Amino acid sequence: MRNKPLRSLSTVRAGETVKLARINAGQGLKSRLTAMGLVPDVEITVVSNNHPGPLVISVKDSKMMLGRGMAHKIMVI
Amino acid sequence: MKKITVALAGNPNSGKTTIFNMLTGAHQHVGNYPGVTVEKKEGSFKYAGYEIAAVDLPGTYSLTAYSMEELVARTFIIDEQPDVVVDIVDASNIERNLYLATQLIEMDVPLVLAFNMSDIAKQRGLHFDIEQLSSLLEVKIVPTVGSKGKGKTELLNAIIETARQEKIERTHKVNYGEEIETELAKIEALLASEEPQLSKRYGSRWLAIKLLEQDSDITKKIHNKEILETVITSIEHLRTIFGDEPEIIIADRRYGFISGACEESIKSSVELRHTNSDIADRVILNRVLGLPIFLLLMYLVFKLTFWVGDPLMGWTENFFGWAADTVAGFWSAGSESWLKSLLVDGVIGGVGGVLVFLPNILLLFLAIAILEDSGYMARAAFIMDRIMHKIGLHGKSFIPMLIGFGCSIPAIMATRVLENRRNRLTTIMVIPLMSCGARLPIYALIIPAFFAPRWHGLMLWLIYMIGIALAIICAKLLRLTLFRGETTPFVMELPPYRIPTIKGTFIHMWERAWLYIKKAGTIILVISIILWAATSYPKLSEESLAGLGQEQVQEAELAHSVAGRVGRALEPVIRPLGFDWRIGTALIGALGAKEVFVAQMGIMYSLGEVDEESKALRAELQARYSPLVGFCIMLFCLISAPCIATLAICRRETNSWGWALFQFFGLTALAYMLTFIVYQIGSLIM
Predict the structure, then answer these.
(1) Which residues of B touch A (CB under 8 A)?
(2) So what's the ipTM on this one?
């Protein structure tokens, strides 16, 4: 599975489910996302992804809105 | 009677507030944690012979040092040592919510878990083996439904039992895996020998974990070089093993511990792929439908505020009229007592003038509370985000701006939801441009005086729109200059839709409305008295008033008073805006509270008591000024210096006189400039 190329969450289309690989962000942001359930290998379902504007994702039974800038920094498989 | 302190912790949207309301009822007190603008809610009640004081900690996902809220919650637990910490867990979103619980367990506090919204969890087909989960986590677990008041007695009993219990020695702890545990053990041993006091206070394991997590607050507390060096070596060692920050691995292990516990004790009977919330979101967050639905809801909010509010406002006005008459009745007719004048014109006139809007403001806050409690507000932030992003703000900034149409004070306080300081300051600076409830009487006086009935609606709409447009431009400019910087990426939970509870909604509404009432009772009261004195003193001598009618006396006295003199002195400055000294004097009054402008204009034209419906005052205005001047008055009142109460709250929330004064003078300068341009160009055309 590690052979599949990483891509940014912002490129994932609505309806797709992906796995989190890593977050390219500073400590504060990373910790915040981690606390909200965005840990390595967690399944993320993209609910809505309309360009421009934020994304809506679903992680561990909760839905959240994610700024596009932040979605760029989240790498998924 | 024995006393117990209970701290409520929990994720945002876990229903923490409903549990707090369920426990304390209306006996709540809202304040701030010392030194920070994080709201602190407290309440107390009696149960089974105990006096229980409950503190609502800020809603957090974690207990790191990265955010003010988390630090405040953590510091409270460590410093105040509450007898029991109740962690409110959203039972329908158990894994994410238990993350906070694992950290509370690590802090070794006497803990009770409230599995809230257990009814929704059941609907979703989740079955909890509470007993097993309780023994795995070594805490008492009570299922609750805060919105329906279910589980209250059980929760209270669990709180009391836990408070009476001896501290338990935990056997099940999150196991961080061999590599991390080895490093933890090394650091723990050093802490115990080198920093015995800190270790005693915080627990050496917790301290060691925090140090590996590179927690800035805890690292600062350690002065021993050996410990700090060991921590750095450990972190580097772990980094090379895992290829990631130890902090992330630690978080991952906590989630692992949670899923292990959940796997054994939670069974999901039905696989519900699409909940009602998902279906609702398909429509509400729809690319095409989202914005129209949002606009419709906003329209309904304003319709409710003004259509239902206006008759209620009439009653409040009548009440203050009656109060003024009753108080005046204590003196004989025609009496010139200064005390009577102070009470009737100063206190009742000033404070009453502000409280008249209470019905409108209550309704606006009620509508906002319903939108917030139902979960729609987070969606509104999503829908508005694209637009707000263009001016360099978040969708979240939209909520305080909406409240600004009611009153700037709760609006500025509502900016606390914005984590980024630059975003927050920008939002605070432009909030007064949202035409607040107090400016409405000025428009209501001026518009019918100068414009034909068919233009009334349009004029009012225009003036509100000018405010919004200016707010957008100013926000953009501020973000490009003073508050330059990247728009911070943001993340916000979209809570499931819920039917708001009546009690919760009213408490929510009341919290904001109370700020407004408090402003009327404190700042406005003082300012009203000062303005009353400024418009009443110095008095003219009896001789110079001889032969004048009663109303002419009033006018002459006002012209002679401090306010009149300042107004006259200002005349050369405001002449280019089309204003005379009378308007200038009334504008000084408007500094206290915008709506005072109307009352002051009444006095200025010797009309005695007037309100915005006064035909005599409108006739007087029409005779003296052109519609252009009328428009300029509205424009100036819309933009210029926010009221004194806003100045005070701005200083408190920004923690700086600099920003408060910047807002005060900046907006006044902007008002002057724009009104100048409009009046000068308007005069040329007309």
Answers:
(1) 61-62, 64, 66-67, 92-96, 99-100, 214, 244-245, 247-248, 251-252, 255, 277-278, 281, 285, 287, 378, 381-382, 385-386, 389, 394-395, 486-494, 496
(2) 0.89
